[in-house]
Every structure is written in C-alpha cells, then in structure tokens.
Fold this sequence. Notes:
Radius of gyration: 25 Å
Mean pLDDT: 80
Largest sheet: 4 strands, antiparallel
CATH topology of the largest domain: Methylamine Dehydrogenase, Chain H
CATH architecture of the largest domain: 7 Propeller
Number of domains: 2
Structural class: alpha+beta
Low-confidence stretches: 33-64
Oligomer: single chain
Number of helices: 9
Helix content: 10-25%
CATH superfamily of the largest domain: YVTN repeat-like/Quinoprotein amine dehydrogenase
Order of helices and strands: HEEHEEEEEEEEEEEEEEEEHEEHHHHHH
Distance between the termini: 41 Å
Number of strands: 20
Shape: elongated
Amino acid sequence: MPSAAAESTNGRLLVLYLEHGKNSDSGSMMICSKAGSSSQRTSPFQEILGYVPDQLSSSSLGFDDNRYNGIKLDEDDAWQLQLAYAAKWQGMVLAICPYLDHYFLVSAGNAFYVCGFPNDNPQRVRKFAVGRTRYMITSLTAHFTRIAVGDCRDGILFYSYHEEARKLEQLYCDPYQRLVADCILLDADTAVVSDRKGNISVLCSEHLEENVSPECNLKLRCAYHMAEVAMRLQKGSITYRLPFDDVLQSGDGPKTSVGSFQNTIIASTLLGSMMIFIRLSREEYELLEAVQARLVVHPLTSPILGNDHNEFRSRENPVGMPKMLDGDMLTQFLELTSMQQQAILSCELPDAIKSSLKPLPPSHFQLNLVVQLLERVHHALS
C-alpha cells in the first residue's frame, strides 16, 4: 500500500521481560526455569530479544535437568513474564529484529527505526535513527552492520547504520518489484527473499559495476517458483558424512562439499510445508542440472499431466535466470532401477534444452557418481 495508507493505522510496540521468582497461585504467567538462577542472567536486552547465553542450553546435551553448572536448582524456580514498556506508534508494526549487541530494529508503516534501551533499562525505548521506504515494510533482518529491509512493492533494500552520526544510509536496491514475505541475510552481501507470489530468490551485492544505477543495483543470482508462499525463512547448517566420502573425493568426478551444508535455508509456508534449500558447488550444480534436464523429459519421470517443468519453476522470474534445482524431481532418480537410471542418463535431450546446459566431461557424467551425490544429499536431509 502507499506510504500514506501505511501510516494511517496505529500500531503498538510491547516490551516484555522475564523476572525470576517463585511459583505462586496469583494467576500470573509463569515459565518453569530449569535454566539457571537470576544471578546468571545477562542484560535485559538479551532476555527481551531472545539472546540466551550458550551455557543455558546445557540441559539439552544430556545433563541433569535439575542442575546448572553443578548447582542444584530449586524445582519451584520460575520465570514470570512482565510488561516493561508499551507505546503507540504511527503505522502498523510488522517487523522487529535485534541489531548488533545493544540495538534493535522496529518497522512501523513505511518507516523503520534503530532503537535501544538507555542504561539497559527495558522500561525506556529510545529511537536513534529512522529510515523510510515508499511502501509499508513487511520484513527486517540484519547481519552484523548490514540491514535488509523488505516492503510490499519495492522488494529488498540494503542499509547501513553509522553509529557516530546516528544516520541510516541506503546502499543497494532490489532490481525487481516484489511483495516481500520474509528475508534473511546469509552474509553482508547476500540476501534470500521470499515473496507473496510463491517465489524465493537470492540477491547479491558482490561484483557490482562502479557505474551501476543506485536505484536498481542488487544482482539477482538465482530464483525458484515454489507455488507456496514462504512466510518465514531461517538460516542453519547441516553436517553429514557417509562411508564412501573418501572414495568420491578421490575419484575423477566433481569435488563435492555436500558433507557440510553451510548457510542452509529452511522455509515454512502458509500451506504448512517445510522446504530446505542447500548450497551446492558449481560442479555439483552442473552435474545435477544435467540429470534434472533428463528427468523432466523422460517418460518414466516427467510430470504426469505433461506440464512444462522448466516453465513452472521459472514462473514470475526473469527469462534466462538460473534456477534452483528441484529436489522432488531429482529424488525420483534414486527410486529407479540401475537399468532405468542408465537409460535416463543416456537419453537424448531436445536441442532447446541441450543448448542451455554446460557440456560435461564423460568422467563426470557417470551413474555411480550421480547416485552417490544424490544419496549424500538425500540422507543428509532425511
């Protein structure tokens, strides 16, 4: 919606904190502790925004649930949820996220603010800087000093906060219009964004030309049409190793890095699906891309209704844009017999598809290498 409409509705910002106390029958909201005493808490900011010291998760590693750092805990210990601050803000408050160690970001309408707690007092909120977009902000995320702001039309915008001057500077903009559902930064230069049309895209600010337009200067690296709206994105990592790793690495095939999935993206959708996106090396991608190109045209594995798989996964995305690979399509390869797998790898591709693929050396395009790579991916995510 336009900025005027975005600011016409008032929102509220609530600050809650956890207070250590004893169980009572007063009817107040209490949370069982088993995580440490009040003397082991850090700043109020960490409690409010969800930062918890690493040692508080020790009970999940097999330690006694009633002990913390060797100290016996009272089973009556509890945390009470208290309201510290409440205020009306001009505009709908749709996004909030922590920033650095002592700030947090809040959006209200088409504006977002760098805020903090003076003297670590959760009952006071101070606005240090404000930035504005043309349309209502739907997503906020940060990675170190880099801030990514997503709105309901202009897509993703990158900002940087200058602490001494207390000013926000806009650095990069989305080259396409999109209604952002959620966004997450993999690093200071790379953002993964989902939109309300069911797409997920990767945008990057690396290797940009110096004379690129400041109004349209993020580069779209790849995209994928999920046909489901991913409302939440989370970043994680998966480490997995199979017995034949050493054999695969010592062969003539593509060198793989699938044993450790860094910067894995987990997306949850409005329809209740969970989707996992992993990062592959260029050699892995080119090998599996060639396999997928054969799976989508072979009678054994092509879409049942005869739909154009390439057109479907490219929907709402620029022509010629590299696509993420379809894990559901590739998994079919593992369900086939060896003869069927070999038949698919040997099938001839239409000229239109063949011209878009990079030629692979015969030593790379072997059945055992394809099966091993797909099994690594499949078992790591199972």
